[in-house]
Amino acid sequence: MKSLAPAGMAAPFGNYAHGVVSDRLVVTSGQLGMAADGTIPDGVRAQAQLCFANIAAILAEAGADFSHVVRFNAFVTQREHMADYMAVRDSAVAGLAIKPASTLVIVSGFTRPEFLVEVEATALLPS
């Protein structure tokens, strides 16, 4: 196994890796809408864009991209956030012939009240 910690991302909040690759499997931790300098933009759309940018960086470190993702799991704090999140996700996978599986769950909150969305990915590298 190899830990994935791309340069230019904020450090994880605790004792865990942003991602792990083992053989062909790549798994990311849940990514929050926080920039490398620690700022958190207003709005689900801006936060989701950061989540997907972070996931793209983690995947790239493993030699993968969104075409290798088999599943996204996402969490938003309000039902009203679903459309903005889905617009960002749909943009990220727009050119893919095979879309990843996807789950979206409404949760009561995250570690800080400013966070509105969290996204994690599972990918499979080609053999």
Automatic annotation (TrEMBL):
InterPro entries registered for this protein in UniProt: RutC-like_sf (IPR035959), YjgF/YER057c/UK114 (IPR006175)
Transmembrane segments: none
CDD domains xrefs: YjgF_YER057c_UK114_family
Pfam families documented for this protein: Ribonuc_L-PSP
Protein name listed in UniProt: Enamine deaminase RidA (YjgF/YER057c/UK114 family)
Organism: Aquamicrobium defluvii
